[in-house]
Design goal:
It contains 7 helices and 10 strands. The chain is of the alpha/beta class. It has a 6-stranded mixed beta sheet with strand order 6-7-8-3-9-10, sandwiched between helices. Strands 2-1-4-5 form a 4-stranded antiparallel beta sheet, with helices on one face. It is globular and about 50 Å long.
């Protein structure tokens, strides 16, 4: 029996047409994300990380292989797969609470209660009536996360959600995301270029190689939360991830599973 929120990818291949020729972007991708797990995908630009996330979201289709959520094949977008982009994509004419509710009516008592809960969860109490132009980048991204979590997705897909933020705000948002994850127990799959971010957040890190995108290594991050970014164990794991990105898997602690 497959648990709700479990993501299972087997032998996924994806190509794009380029100058009349099919170019393989993803090759034989396979991994599982367990219910409630936080997994990060990291790799160089052009390795297909965002393409992979779009296939998982149902926004694109693979050429072969399977992508399943809770045991069911993913064929199209749906509310059981939340997607957070690098840009917050809020409606500028709507307030914070209206953006979180989106197509749901705040006049509905149950919706109103859930929106209030989300505002508390992402720590935006007091900003309910504010418009996006009145918010910082980090606050706007928290609104986007709250809007997605309101729909109670089985898995939350995050494509470089903090890439446009300054270093201080980014660190704060990473801590906020961890708090949300620990409270909600939502399965999370994050794409990033940031090694520190990957080690700070994840239970596991999947390292990808480019042209075509393949899985190079899978690294378990067994540090307890909250994590000390300047601690020796953190820095050791950071070095392992860096080596996995720079070298072949067999050069990193003997390989595929670290």
């Amino acid at each position: 029996m497959t648990l709700t929120g479990t993501l299972d990818i087997k032998r996924l291949n994806k190509s794009f047409e380029h100058e009349g020729e099919a170019k393989l972007v993803l090759s034989e991708i396979g991994f599982e994300v367990k219910q409630g797990e936080f997994v990060t995908i990291i790799g160089p630009s052009g390795c297909g990380k965002s393409t992979l996330l779009k296939v998982i979201a149902g926004l694109d289709r693979g050429d072969s292989g399977s992508v399943r959520l809770s045991g069911s094949e993913i064929q199209s977008p749906s509310q059981d797969k939340g997607f957070i982009f690098q840009e917050h994509r809020l409606f500028p004419w709507l307030t914070v609470e209206q953006n979180i509710a989106a197509d749901l009516s705040l006049k509905n008592k149950e919706v109103r209660q859930k929106v209030d809960e989300m505002i508390e969860l992402v720590r935006l109490k007091g900003f309910e009536k504010s418009y996006p132009k009145q918010l910082s980048g980090g606050m706007s991204q928290r609104v986007a996360i709250a809007r997605t979590l309101l729909r109670n997705p089985q898995v939350l897909l995050l494509d470089e959600p903090f890439g446009a933020l300054d270093a201080f705000t980014r660190a704060h948002m990473q801590e906020s995301l961890l708090e949300i994850w620990r409270q909600n127990h939502t399965t999370m799959l994050l794409v990033t270029h940031d090694i520190d971010e990957a080690v700070f957040l994840s239970n596991r890190i999947i390292v990808m190689d480019a042209r075509p995108g393949t899985i190079k290594a899978t690294i378990s991050i067994d540090l307890p939360y909250p994590r000390n970014r300047i601690g020796a164990s953190f820095q050791e794991l950071r070095t392992i991830v860096l080596k996995a990105l720079e070298h072949h898997p067999e050069e990193v602690n003997g390989g595929w599973e670290i």
